Amino acid sequence: MDLAPMSKIKPRALAFGDTIGIAAPAGAFDADRLEKGLSVLQAMGFLVRLPDGTHASQRYLAGTDEHRAAMFNNLFADPEIKAVACARGGFGALRMAPLLDMDAITRHPKIFLGFSDISVLLSILGRKAGLITFHGPVVTSLADADDATIASLADALTTTEPLRIDLAEGMSLVPGTAQGPVAGGNLASLCQMIGTPWQPAFDGCILFLEETSEPAYRVDRMLTQMRLAGCLAGVAGVALGRFDRCGHMDVIFEIVREHLPEGVPVLAGFPVGHNGTNRTLPLGVWASLDAENRFLEYHEPALAR
Predict the structure, then answer these.
(1) CA 291 to chain CA centroid, nearest Å
(2) How far, in Å, CA of 298 to CA of 210, rounded?
(3) What does the alpha-carbon distance between residue 230 and residue 160 come to, in Å, rounded to a whole number?
(4) Where are the alpha helices (DSSP H) in 169-268?
């Protein structure tokens, strides 16, 4: 297959004073943690807009599917909003996927940020709208984020230079190098998309994965499903983030290697994911992964000037 870089839509870099709109496309959230997270964004120099209705709830969701999707679509259509950040992950992004206004998203490209269940939307917007997206903190997680998380986020949202991540304490599970667009996110969130119209494809990609609170047998089960569905057959390389509360990491690493084609480079130890430093990773941008020298280097900026 042709592995040349695909044409992607680069959103514009943020300037201090730009407005970040807050979406709640998935789970209901704690209002106090949201306010603390908003104050972090404001301290970084950005304005924030919390649309009326953001605090809606239905069971464990932030309102009905129609409500969440309408607010999401409106934020993308609003020219005053320069970036869209998500209040929380949890669950619910895939439920509203059929209601996304992909035309509006394509006409008004802007930074879209989130992780965990938001991995669903990162994948859909990347594949269906061609938008470069950002795997990074949700607003509620900024409430107690460390300095490294905040600095990485600020850099990712404003820089027009290629990013590079060096892992002094990274682990080369399978040596080698790989090139391709970075893709992926939360393992469980990606796995739930298999068999839907938005099933992810990682052919020629550097696949990033992270997870939380899933014991080893569940990680094994999800990777088994992804492998048997063909999602892992063509991966160029794998970058592993934090597998928080998933059991002994040697077991997780062994499981990952079992499900990948032989010789695919694997670099573990990226400070990305739940319950710890959560560096922001652009998705959809061509990069090089060097498992032996322990770095991920993007070939071009993720943002336009």
Answers:
(1) 21
(2) 19
(3) 35
(4) 187-191, 216-228, 249-259
Contact status, residue 209 vs residue 240, Cβ threshold 8 Å: yes
Q: How many C-beta neighbours within 10 Å does residue 79 have? A: 7
CATH for the 19-157 domain, from 3.30.1390.10, 3.30.420.10, 3.40.50.10740, 1.20.1250.20: 3.40.50.10740
**Which residues make Cβ contacts (< 8 Å) with residue 168, sequence separation at least 6?**
294
**Full-model pTM:** 0.96
For 184-215, where are the alpha helices, taking DSSP H only? 187-191
Low-confidence ranges of the chain (pLDDT < 50): 1-6
The pLDDT tens digits for 109-137 are: 999 999 999 999 999 999 999 999 999 99
pLDDT value at residue 268: 98
Beta strands at 266-268 and 237-244: parallel, antiparallel or unpaired? parallel
- Active site (catalytic) residues: 116, 210, 274
